[in-house]
Amino acid sequence: MTHQAERLPWQALASIFDLKTTNPCQHDAPNLHPRDEPETRQKLSQFLDAFIKNASSDAKQERKKYPEKYDPLDAGIFLKSMTGEEDDEVRRWYPKNDGGSISSKFDQGLQCPHINDSDKCECVLPHKERQLAAFQRDYYPNECYHFYADNAESYRNLEFVKTLILLGEMDPVLQVCSSGECHLTRWWEAGPCYCEGLNLGWNMICDYAITMYLTLNIHYCFPEIWQDDDGSPIDDYRDLASYQMAVRHCTPSSGCQIATYPHRDLFGIQDKLFDIFPMPFDMSWWEEFIKIDDYYVSRRREIDPNWDMDSEFIEPSAYKLKFYPYGLITYDEFLNFEKPVSYQPHSNDVAHVRWMLGQKGLPTELADSIISKAEYIPGRSLPVDGRPFHPGNKAELDRYLEECWQLIVRCFMLGRELENEDVDFEERIRRLFKVCVREVFRCDCKGSVELFYDFDGPF
Asked: How far is CA 414 from the centre of its chain?
């Protein structure tokens, strides 16, 4: 059953798509294709209205868990709500040592003991960085490639705010919002510069949650792609262009990494699997999808007008993808397209290996040491690897969809807390919904962009 089927008209939304084995507008890839019918815009509009209504309602209920008003806080007040429980998540995004190991700064956790300004402190989250003033830093416009030089301290605190949103620890975030100088509105959408994209804001948490929430629920409305006639599970949905697009979109190696964690954890997507400038790992095998970059050709011909691309060896860096082959390769090929993947264990695998070592007579401490040295740690949460619609994954899929919904609700709640006469967060989330649907189910058909962006009025 789709998530919140009694509140959201999933079947009506799914009915605007046709399942096609080939789509000329998508390089002949199999995919769900939007129907060009008068009812399509109406059904999209009705679903979006229901989506916003229910997210708004749940956000209001969530807000009731916290004080209606917070007492005014001095800028030097210590946010006691930040208890250090965020340690595991912070470890994931905090800069690693040169060798890629976790910083020794984590040995004492996030609880900084240095309360005096005179104390020398190199803690992950210094005492002064847990004070309100640290979370009131503004976002400064920057020139290209100067983002971290101009906004390093502000962005570090934003990363902690994102971590709190991810974990559902909203009390300290709401405390910050209640102060007179909260700049989280400006951090909703942020990035190094327009050249590199605006993918560092806390809107990415909502973006990825909406994308996967819509994708999985819509695909579930087509049982023929996840269940055979006799009821046995099949995996045809994993070879659809929209499914592969959604997985890659929500687990990139660049931008807001914190927002990717729930989705990486479910699907077992390892770090740095999907690059911002993708190229096949095995270029000779996938040569049908690559070409020599036009810019490289023009530069070479500026140097030598008689230069012929067939006359000499051309370095791999001169090539680029013609297009990303979503749906034109199997899901396993998709995972290995840019980088060979390694097996991502489930927690059950780790427990089984620990048991096996114990059966060999090894003490528990030595078994744990071997597992730690081998970095054999859980890399996915789906018991049946990479198959979310498999019956054996139902409980975990339900948990994940609820997590996606709660992330949307928290972002909605926080947005409502920050709203003013100049900022309408409901409209921002409406726009984000349209972008997510368009990104996953995009095609080159005439009117496709207008369909997804303007179905309830100008974008």
From this structure: 19
Q: Does residue 64 have a pLDDT over 60?
A: yes
| Residue type, position 339, single letter | K
Domain with 203, as residue range(s), is 1-79+131-275+330-344+381-459
Kindly calculate the radius of gyration of the chain based on its CA atoms and give it in whole angstroms.
Answer: 24
The 10s digit of each residue's pLDDT in 184-235 is 999 999 988 877 788 999 999 999 999 999 999 999 999 999 999 999 999 9
**Do 153 and 295 belong together in one domain?**
no
Comparing 140 with 394, the larger pLDDT belongs to 394
- The mean pLDDT value for 96-122 works out to 66
H or E stretch at 258: none
The model's confidence at residue 103, banded by pLDDT at 50, 70 and 90, is: low
* Domain co-membership, 174 together with 201: yes
Clarify whether residues 295 and 180 are in a common domain: no
Tell me: do 223 and 300 sit in the same domain: no
Q: Are 132 and 176 in contact (CB under 8 A)?
A: yes
Q: Residues 409, 262: one domain?
A: yes
Residue 119 has pLDDT above 80, yes or no: no
CA distances from 53 to 101, 221, 400 (A): 45, 22, 21
Please tell me the pTM assigned to this model: 0.92
Structure tokens at 79: 């946010």
Q: Both 143 and 217 in a single domain?
A: yes
Considering the domain architecture, whether residues 319 and 335 belong to the same structural domain is answered as no
Cα–Cα distance between 327 and 245 in angstroms, integer? Answer: 9
pLDDT digit string (tens) for 338-359?
A: 999 999 999 999 999 999 999 9
The CA–CA distances, whole Å, from 18 to 35, 106, 123 equal 7, 51, 54
How many domains are contained in the chain? Answer: 3
Q: What is the dihedral of CA 20, 25, 29, 31, to 10 degrees?
A: -40
Q: Which of 143, 146, 167, 175 is nearest to 92 (CA)?
A: 167
> Contact 216/258 with Cβ under 8 angstroms?
no
Same domain? 422 vs 293: no
